[in-house]
Write a structure and sequence with these properties.
mainly alpha, single chain, 77 residues
């Protein structure tokens, strides 16, 4: 699993990963990894759009401004 994460970070982000952004990169990797064998990939864009509308936006300032990792996640029903 660690080698998959390392390969993904190096391939997708060209090794340019900064510590304040790491939790968000890990969330994206987890999202993609958990859906790698999904049989309903056509619904993926719809789910992403629903989540984008349902959640508050995260500003760049809140990402790098310090403090804890803001977890303002909602749940889709």
């Amino acid at each position: 699993m660690a080698s998959l994460l390392k390969r993904w970070l190096l391939g997708t982000h060209q090794g340019r990963v900064e510590r304040p952004h790491l939790p968000y990169y890990l969330d994206e990797f987890t999202f993609r990894f958990n859906r790698r064998t999904s049989r309903s990939r056509g619904l993926l864009f719809l789910r992403l759009a629903q989540q984008a509308v349902a959640l508050k936006p995260v500003t760049y300032r809140s990402l790098v401004g310090g403090g804890s990792y803001p977890r303002n996640r909602g749940t889709l029903t």
